[in-house]
Amino acid sequence: MHMSEDDIRTKVVYEWLKDCPITSDEIFIEFTIKIRLGRGTRFINSRSDVLVRNYRGDNLLIIEVKKPSHNLRQDDKFQALSYARALAEGGIAPFTILTNGNHTLIFDTISGEEISGKVVPSTHRYVENQFKVTGDVIGAYSEALNYLISLSEDNLLEFCKGQAEFRMSLLKSDDLFSGKKYIPQTYVDRLGPKNELDEKLFTGKKTRDVLLITGPPQHGKTSFVCNVIDTYLSINIPCVFYPAISLKEGLLNALIDDFQWTFNSNFSIVQIAQRLNSILEKSNQYLVIVIDGWNEMFDTPLRLNEECRRLNSGRIKVVISSTSASLERILYDGAGNPEFVCSSVELTREQIRKLCSKPLKSTKDLGVIQIDKFNPEEIAEAKLKYEKAFNVRFEEGGNLPKDPYYLRLASEQYANGIVPAFANRTSLIHKSLLSKSNRSRIEELELQRGLVSLAEVLYKHDSPTKIISLPESFNSINLGKWCEAAILQELKSETFTEIAFYYTHDLDYSIAVLHKEWHNIFKVPTNFYKIIEEIEEAIQTRVGRSALEWFLSCPDYFEHLKIVFSILSKDSNKGLLSFTKQPILNQVKLNNKLDFEWLEIYLTEFIGIDQNKPMEKSEISELIYAYVESIDITQNSLDFEFWIGVLLKYDNSLEDLGAEESYMAQIFDGEIEGYESYDNSFLDIGLFERLLLHKDDEVASKAALYLAYASAYSFMEKYEDYKKNIFNNDSDYKSILESACERVMYSLGDTYYGYSMCKGLYYYLENGDEEAKHEYVKLKPLVFPIISTYADSKIGQDLLNLLNNLRIKAEIDEELNEEIYFEDPDQLKFDFEI
């Protein structure tokens, strides 16, 4: 008869124990050992075959059973001893028994030494000590943890859950009024970014090991990454989470700390990475390391680039969030060279520059995920969730903020009531701070004084600041209340503790309104020197720049921005004027009134004195864009057309970013009343055809290039008319149309040859079939005028080669070269017959 482990356990061991003076209540079969994993937040379960306790609940011995055919090995001994040593409830079992029914071994649990014979002698020290263990108990317990809680596939996910719960504790809460950034019950799914993230990490044709999540401040990046962590862990995708502001000793040291805390081993980062890759490879999984708020790493933000490089592998993926305005600072080194993350996500300087003011149209070829303000569907979902959670109702219309941060503040402040249709961000922040302080028993006067004194310290020393720099009123008790209120947060390291504001906007408000009172200073145009002095002082520190940008970007202070801009535009220090560019672009996004006509006089001045280079060309183009966006086209079509021409001259975004990301795409995106659309493109064809005749050849050339981008076939159909009109305008049509014709050649090459992963139409045509003939006959009259114009250049030769290839594929016998004539540069002919 063959006996199994279960047979040995129940028919041999259990019956033997009953024959001893042990009751059935003291015998536990397949006892589950609970071992704490992580920072006191998770348990993993390990099973022992038999545990014996005395009547007081003290553990006496553990019996590990193997089947009779199993030869007892050293590993079996380590397993049994580890179970006995790791028992938390009832203490360490002093004796460990290992048996396969044929052979039985008895061990001293602490020393691991085998006890000879078939019984424990009555003179054994544990027996004489009432079964209490002695010796190196701590060492034995630690050794057991190393064995049972080793870094393995079974334990990795549980480790991740504990790690994420601990690291997210400062950000996540189920309390609606906790002030925490991530409240799961009111979280609004950002389905577009979430699907894009999944695809770029796991499911797409080209997956990435490094991804950057970016967007303006307080638009929901932290909530998004916290929700990603929750979602991934719920479907058993291992991931860990780190707020960047807490990485004082770096990401690698934080990883080492978490693994050592959990697994009780002195792992090096190399050992951790090797073990992780081995486990993930076997289980065909990935570990996602999520770092939130990279822009808040002020001392050594660039170090994260090198740490990501060291961790870079096919099984470890890194996702980092940062405000878009900080990207250039953290993606490039001091010499202006792209760092590892920048190269990995494939962002160019031009794309980074655009991200500072507006999202990119497309990030499909980039390792970037954009989080912007709520779209209409997300606003509707947010209002439904907030109405239910906070028992509020939203008034229709008005200028209610669409960014997640302010929409939530409005819901909190008007809980159990009606949220008015307004956009006063200052009032929302003020009321939010009052509400949070009341919940933590901070009096209003104490709050006001504390905010002013904190703002003064951080404005001077930057943020975060060491705790010893705080005003004396912030003792340990008071500081605890401010942290509990989610106004401040403590950042602890091995050497010191630092303090920072929990929300950046709370700090911005405290500096700009409470401490510096810019709302009073900047509203008086005669405060010329005072305003310049304030701005020069503010831009010296990071928190000063942040507060100033928030203040000037806020719709509440739109009139203050106009005054500041007018004063700085007259000052000799044009560097200060450049600072206003970003707030102006932010106001374009935030202020529904879009009243930027006041920019016109200054833009005219900048353009007129361009030889002195008061601003960079790209900065002028961004201001022109802000102004053009504010023009009412139906009322001021001539002004609109004039400034579109100016923008064409100054804007290099077409060359730097491509048509899809250019300012023209932003201006003409969607249907504009009174302006035709063509071929589903974004461009106003009629307007740009008029700009072909602009007296400035650079403007005319760029207008032609946009027309070629909008539709290469339409451009070819109208090419002869374009030539004639430009020639009659006493301009050089050949140079004006050259860039556009190069774009036509590229478009045709992509259509027929394929410049992407897919093959072009040419490779699918059969020799001599009707479709090949149709393509040749269709294309020949369209490209011959361009070939004739540029017969002596690469454009003409490339188009002629394409046409010849189609002719050969169509099996048409004619010589194209004989039909081409070279145009006399001094004479223009339009009656050309093919």
TrEMBL record:
TM annotation in the entry: none
Domain of life: Bacteria
Domain Type I restriction enzyme R protein N-terminal, residue spans: 5-109
Gene3D superfamilies for this protein: 3.90.1570.30, P-loop containing nucleotide triphosphate hydrolases
Entries under InterPro entries matching the protein: HSDR_N, P-loop_NTPase
SUPFAM superfamilies: P-loop containing nucleoside triphosphate hydrolases
Descriptive protein name: Type I restriction enzyme R protein N-terminal domain-containing protein
Organism of this sequence: Flavobacterium limi
Classification of source organism: Bacteria, Pseudomonadati, Bacteroidota, Flavobacteriia, Flavobacteriales
